[in-house]
Structures are given as structure tokens and as C-alpha cells.
Amino acid sequence: MFYDNHVFRDGGIKLFAIYSFVQSCTIDNNLFDSTAIVIMGSAGAGYMQNCSITNNVSASLIRVSDIPEQSLVTNSCFYGNDNIIVHGLEEGFGIQNENNANGDPCDIFQNIFLDPLYNDQSDGDYTLQIQSPNIDAGVPDSLFDPDGTVGDIGAFYFHQNDVVEDGVWHGAIPQQSWMIYPNPCNSSFRIFSNDEQITSFALYDIQGRLVDHIICNGSSTFTYNASLLCSGTYFIQLFGRSQNLGNRPVFILK
Questions:
Q1: CA separation for the pair 53, 4 (Å, rounded)
Q2: Of the ranges 51-60, 146-155, 176-185, which is most confident?
Q3: Whole-prediction pTM value?
Q4: pLDDT by residue (tens digit) across 200-219?
Q5: What is the DSSP letter of 158?
Q6: Within 10 Å of residue 122's Cβ, how many Cβ atoms?
């Protein structure tokens, strides 16, 4: 979350790594004297997905990489920015000649250019209204929201499954009903579930790629051998006998 800032020189948000990756951020109402967002990888690759970039003033909006075919800005929302100049992307960004899974106009990279309908951005409330086009507009078949639905665009997801019938809650189990320990970890971690037996879980890397899928024995705890994983941030999507239990990050330090 990055909002209400004035950056005087050399870009506002700058990432320089072998592969630079920005995901699920909200960047709103900032004044940048230069390029707003610089995502440069030393291997030539820069990526952004599921981000809501709104109401910013800048000389140019995004510089991703000097190698367009290795750069990607996808499934993000751009609205109310005074300048939408981008550098380092393949042609097609901003040309709204397709529709996304919600039926909203988008470019070939599934970026949308609609009002995200924050609840009250003037008061710093960037949660989404129920009519927001950001809901379920993130990268499909990647990281899901904690309610088990397709990822929303931006830093705050809209929980869709709070349904109460006959006094019984039928929504997704809140994330705090299960935990990962230790976290960060080195060679292994354990998953503990308070309410549901663990039937399986999927492990994704920071780019949303499936790393492993484990079938569990249906107990309330499970130990995972992480010795072959590289250092980094991963996400676990957990499943019980009756429902998707949501996802949580796990940090591997070697």
C-alpha cells in the first residue's frame, strides 16, 4: 500500500533484482516528479500483476524493462492517472479491445481501466465496494483470495463468502483457524489446523507458479520437508474435507 506521497526525484517505487516482481499492491494519489514505478530486473525481466494504480501524477507511469518480450504488466487496474505513459512493454497495453472474465473491457494483458470503487479513499480506506471491477479480476489459476475465489486486484480483497443460513456460517474458514510454524523456516515447517482435517495443500512461488501439491492424511497437522526449496516467499493454499481453507505466505530462509 503506497498512497499520498510526494517523490521528488529518480522515480517513486524502484525495484532492482535478478527478476523484479510486484503483486497485489494499491498505489494511489501520489505525486512523482519522475517515473512513478520502475521495475527492472538484471536478467531483463520485470513483472507486475494484480495491482491497482490510481489517481497518480507523474512524468511517466511505469518503466518495466529494456527487453519488452521479457516484461509483463497484467491483470491490474489503471484509473485516474494524469499520465499513462509506459516504457518497456510489448504493444497492446492500454488498448481495450477484449473483455475479461467479469465481462469488463480490458487490454490483451487483462488490465482494466475502470474506477476501482474504493470504499473511502479520502479516509485511507482502500477496501473494495461490492460493485468493484477489481473483484475476481486478478490472475486466474494463480493465487486465490482467502475466501477461495479468484484473486482480486489491489492490496485488499473483498470477502465474498460470509453467508449465514439458519444461524450457521457457511463462509470460508478465516485464516487464523490454521497456522504455519516455524515461519520463517529453514528445512521444514508444520501446518496446524484448529477446525478442519487437512486433506491437501498447494505450494506456489511468488510468481504464482505451482511448486508442489501434497495429498495429506486427513489429520489436523502436517509436516512439510522444505529442504529442497530455494530461499524466498511462497504461498500455501490449504484444503480441508469440506472446503478451501484459504492461503497464507511461508518464508524460506537458507
A1: 13
A2: 51-60
A3: 0.63
A4: 999 998 878 899 999 998 88
A5: P
A6: 7
